[in-house]
Amino acid sequence: MVFTSQIFLFYFLPLVLLAYYALPRRGRNVLLTLVSYVFYGWWNPWFVLLMFSSTVVDWYCGIAISKEGASEKARKRGVLISIVSNLSLLGFFKYFGFAQENLNRLLVLFGAEATGVLEVILPVGISFYSLQSMSYSIDLYRGDAKRAKNFGDFACYVAMFPQLVAGPIVRYHEIYKQLDDRPQRGQLFRQGVLCFMIGFAKKILLANTLGEIADLTFGAGSMPAEAAWFGVLAYSFQIYFDFSGYSDMAIGLGNMLGFQLPINFKSPYRADSITDFWRRWHVSLSSWLRDYLYIPLGGNRGGTVRTYINLMLTMLLGGLWHGAQWTFLVWGLFHGVALAAERAAGKRAYWSALPRPIRVFVTMILVLLSWVPFRATSLDQLGTYLSSLFVGCGDALAGEVLAGRVFQPYYLVIMTVGALVIWAGTATDKLVERALKHELLSLGIFALFLLSVVAMSLQAENPFLYFQF
After folding, report:
1. 173 and 192 inside one domain
2. Can you give the chain as a three-state secondary structure string?
3. Are residues 173 and 222 in the same domain?
4. 455 and 414, same structural domain?
5. What domain range is 378 assigned to?
């Protein structure tokens, strides 16, 4: 089930909200857990068993870690079991096939016979709920949070449907107090409705249309340089509106249920450096990688060289987290090198003296280049697309046909609207604040939502990009 579907909008969500507010507060977490399992099991009922098993393991690990009088050895054992079990699940379902394929390439290279590759179905959202569930044990071990009062509250935290399959990644210490007691204010509910409608419009009206341009160009092979740049710009807009739209909807749904979830995007394409970009893009993941990977590796405490190594390892693993492909490792390596280079240059480098618009423009070009390996499905496609960007190639007639398809007036209008929203628009949280004070703006957002619902009924089903991660 996805947020941008008729069954979610017209059946699942209204029924959940009616039942949720009809119950006394102490029963709402139980209901939320049950409907979250229904929501998650809609793709494949077997996925529910996997998530439930992971939840049970982490619950008992939490008990071992926080048990009064527990020795340091027992506490370490508990957090280690949690980390190993979560990473083992993630490793098997997400990377086992990738490892087999690369092993076969090595076998063939050395003249041996390739083995059969086991087909493993990737459970939706496993990358997100694994990190989220694992953070519970780590937070308990560090003393950053108290143990959940009961298994039901913890299961609710892991399975909560608004952010279950694509984030934002909510760490336990950020939400445990809300699981026990959260305000049910009409203002917060209205805020959530507005936030959801804005995210819905981002996905339907912008992301899905821009995705058509990206699909055309990335599927074309060689092409003229102008088409290649237009295509990667379209993809950069698509992934932003798709993922930030999902995050807006997740935050909005959380608000409707009384939760305040963390903001996941802070106008990332207005960043004036790659370092600044990672403070703004997918904030819940970048902060998770910083706090649970970069800092435990040593952060910047081991000297200059060690700091660069830690940055590179963090971004490489961050790239691999997104998917079992060499292209994601290239993407992670690109950002690791860029972050290390900016750190080496220092805050007083000539870069800081440049006018901010120039810094933003150059940063955006670097981000665009990084999206090429992220979108490419193979190293061969990556090489071909990069060649098209800088050299421009391919059959002239085919290039004209492609240009005619991607430079349509409708696509140009949508790209222009997307650019205005990104570089001149108001951030969703600020827009919601204004809409709460101005009824006319609220009506405008509602009208945009209605238009999006109509457009949704005319589009083919288009799941969120981050569902695949």
Report:
1. no
2. CCCCCHHHHHHHHHHHHHHHHHCCHHHHHHHHHHHHHHHHHCCCHHHHHHHHHHHHHHHHHHHHHHCCCCCHHHHHHHHHHHHHHHHHHHHHHHHHHHHHHHHHHHHHHCCCCCCCCCCCCCCCCHHHHHHHHHHHHHHHHHCCCCCCCCHHHHHHHHHCHHHCCCCCCCCHHHHHHHHHCCCCCHHHHHHHHHHHHHHHHHHHHHHHHHHHHHHHHHCCCCCCHHHHHHHHHHHHHHHHHHHHHHHHHHHHHHHHCCCCCCCCCCCHHHCCCHHHHHHHCCHHHHHHHHHHHHHHHCCCCCCHHHHHHHHHHHHHHHHHHHCCCHHHHHHHHHHHHHHHHHHHHCCCCHHHHCCHHHHHHHHHHHHHHHHHHHHCCCHHHHHHHHHHHHCCCCCHHHHHHHHHHHCCHHHHHHHHHHHHHHHHCCCHHHHHHHHHHCHHHHHHHHHHHHHHHHHHHHCCCCCCHHHHC
3. no
4. yes
5. 188-468
Q: Report yes or no on 245 lying in a domain.
A: yes
What's the structural domain count of the chain? 2
438 labelled catalytic: no
Residue 290 lies in a domain: yes
Residue 1 lies inside a defined structural domain of this protein: no
Last residue of a domain, one of 119, 148, 182: 182
Q: Which residues have C-beta within 8 Å of that of residue 380, sequence separation ≥ 6?
A: none
Among 173, 282, 322, 438, the active-site one is 322
Residues 31 and 77 in one domain: yes
Question: Tens of pLDDT along the chain (469 residues)?
Answer: 788 888 999 999 999 999 999 988 888 899 999 999 999 988 888 889 989 999 999 999 999 998 887 788 889 999 999 999 999 988 888 888 888 888 888 877 777 777 777 777 778 888 888 888 888 999 999 888 888 888 988 999 999 999 888 778 888 888 888 888 777 778 889 999 999 999 999 999 999 999 999 988 888 878 888 888 999 999 999 999 999 999 999 999 999 999 989 899 999 999 999 999 999 999 999 999 988 888 888 878 877 888 888 899 999 999 988 888 899 999 999 999 999 888 888 766 677 778 899 999 999 999 999 999 999 989 999 999 998 888 877 666 666 767 778 888 898 999 999 999 999 999 999 999 999 889 899 999 999 999 999 998 887 777 777 776 6
Does 262 fall in a domain? yes
Residues 31 and 50 in one domain: yes
